[in-house]
Amino acid sequence: MTSSPVRQFQTPRGTRDLLPEDYSVHAHILSHAREQARLAGFGFIEPPTFEQAELFARGVGEGTDIVEKEMYIFEDRGGDRLALRPEGTASVCRAYLQHGMANLSQPVKLAYHLPIFRYERPQAGRFRQHTQFGVEAIGVRDAGLDAEVIDLGWRVAESLGLTDLKILLNSIGDIEDRRAYVPLLKAHFEPHLDRIAPDDQARWDRAPMRLLDSKDDRTKPFQTGAPIITDHLRPESAAYYDSVKSHLEALGIPYEERPTLVRGLDYYTHTVFEIVPAHADGSQVTVLAGGRYDGLIEQIGGPPTPGIGFGMGLERMAHHLREQDLAPDEQSTTDVLIAALGEGADVAASRIAGDLRRRGVAATLAFGGRSLKAQLRQANRSGARFAVIAGARDLADGNVTIRDLQTSDQRQVAVGDIVSELAGLATGREYTQPQD
Ligand code: ATP
Ligand code: MG
Fold first, then answer.
1. What pLDDT was estimated at residue 436?
2. Which residues in the chain land under pLDDT 70?
3. Is the CB of residue 43 less than 8 Å from the CB of residue 96?
4. What is the distance in A from the centroid of ligand 2 to the CA of 286?
5. What is the model's pLDDT at position 429?
């Protein structure tokens, strides 16, 4: 009888492991993003990873790609129809309603860092699970707030050292504005319907503004000369857009108006924006995107409540930082490597490691009972600054050797003095062991 080979498991298509070298770049981006959000007065929120599927169907919109084609929907054992979150805004708005945040002083400003799930066609910069850092400012409709949110996104990029990005800005008006504009837009594409991409043909009727956003080469030629929404805004909508621009100018935030910029979700109104590399083109380069969504909360069952926010793709931002050579150097994982030699030395080495860690010094043991040479090679590779060599013979006299791995100087110290000798390396927070 032949046994079947053991299966090699792989990450599901479109997903990937975040390895330590990737994780450190994500952590770097997040620490900057969190700090900028804190400085702008945002609190932090984390909704559950799955919600009632209906929330997204209503919030994001039935006709959107996200809801129609990309949601991971499942029925749980109790028969509830749930979905893995395909975006963050609807969840945060649901939380705003559920916790009565309308009673707090407005706007309520919330930031988050969440995995997002979309059944997309995997390609470079497009995954089935990605991570967003996002913010939402809910409860106020004020051009100054729009500018503040755009400014926050810009400062996150700036604080990471990025200088080659640009902000694309547009106003897509509201339902009233579109009543006049949409028929003109449809009329523009109508004579070409049989030549544009089939997906876009279907959009022509239910979401014609998406045709402006199409990245399909069959549709793109017909985007030229299409009427643009900003020519058809009512005076009050145009004034709001002007006010957003004046605020941005006052803040010294550069932007480029892009009258064809529309966003792929139904809920956006008025201000929409993206942050993209200044010199790259393509459909997977947007690192941050957002806009105002004054109709969303009403659509999910709340009172009319305005809001604005953005989502930043961490994978795309990490990729971009690497391309610009701005990703942080790989951190060494330890300060001190402890080599043990001879009978009983491993136990002493373990104690030394524990004592150092308690004092906030990162310490690693060279396991495996190998030669001193092999252990020191490991110490050099680990990026440690010092090696502690705990040899059985020295230990019998109460001593170990400390070797500076940069200068190769070494000296003997008493076991009891190791911690005070190396405490200067402490990066973590030390703690006192409970007395027994
Ligand atoms: P795109 O036009 O690139 O599909 P989107 O309009 O679907 O983006 P949003 O829903 O606004 O994007 O998400 C905000 C940000 O999240 C994007 O600007 C991008 O940086 C990132 N993002 C979106 N979808 C993915 C994905 N499938 N894989 C990786 N990052 C993504
Ligand atoms: Mg998309």
1. 45
2. 1-3, 264, 281-282, 427-436
3. no
4. 10
5. 52
Could you give the strand order of the β-sheet that contains 269-277, starting from the edge strand earlier in sequence? 43-44, 108-117, 129-138, 307-313, 288-292, 269-277, 165-171, 256-257
DSSP code at position 433: P
For the entire predicted model, the pTM comes to: 0.90
Does residue 330 sit in helix, strand or coil? coil
Interatomic CA distance for residues 280 and 321, integer angstroms: 14
Residues with CB under 6 A from ligand 1: 87, 118, 120, 125-127, 130, 132, 263-264, 284, 286-289, 311, 313, 315-316
Q: Find, among 146, 72, 150, 156, the residue nearest to 113 by Cα.
A: 156
pLDDT tens digits along 114-141: 999 999 999 999 999 999 999 999 999 9
* CA 24 to chain centroid: 13
Say if residue 221 is preceded by a cis peptide, omega within 30 of 0.
no
Q: According to the model, what pLDDT value does residue 62 have?
A: 80
Contact 142, 308 (CB under 8 A): no
Distance 189 CA to ligand 2 centre (A): 23
Cα dist from 143 to 159, 242, 386, whole Å: 24, 9, 55
Supply angle C-alpha 264, 270, 273, rounded to 5. 55
- Chain centroid to CA 147: 21
